[in-house]
Every structure is written in C-alpha cells, then in structure tokens.
Specification:
- This protein is an all-alpha fold.
- It has one domain.
- It contains two helices and no strands.
- The protein has helices at 2-38, 42-50.
C-alpha cells in the first residue's frame, strides 16, 4: 500500500505544476494581448497608416 500512496502523491505534484503552469500561461497571454493592442509593433503601425 505504500507504493500506492507514493504514486498518488507524485500524480498530485504533476497536476499541481501543470495547473499552475496553465494559470501563468493564461495571465501571460492576456497581458501580451492587452499590451499588443496598446503598443502596436511596426507592422501594425504601418498597416494603420495605409488605411
């Protein structure tokens, strides 16, 4: 039974790390999208000037 306890503990660690990574990725993606619309890069500025 000890092996089952250790195995479940490692599954919990991997699930915790994966979920924390997903939350961080969502926040980074949101910040990148918001800052991209606020501070357009050169290609986006040139496209706006041509309109």
């Amino acid at each position: 039974m000890f092996a089952a306890y250790v195995w479940h503990w490692w599954i919990g660690v991997f699930l915790l790390l994966g979920s924390l990574g997903a939350v961080v990725a969502v926040f980074v993606g949101y910040a990148a999208k918001v800052s991209a619309s606020r501070y357009p890069n050169r290609r986006q500025r040139q496209a706006l000037k041509q309109k």
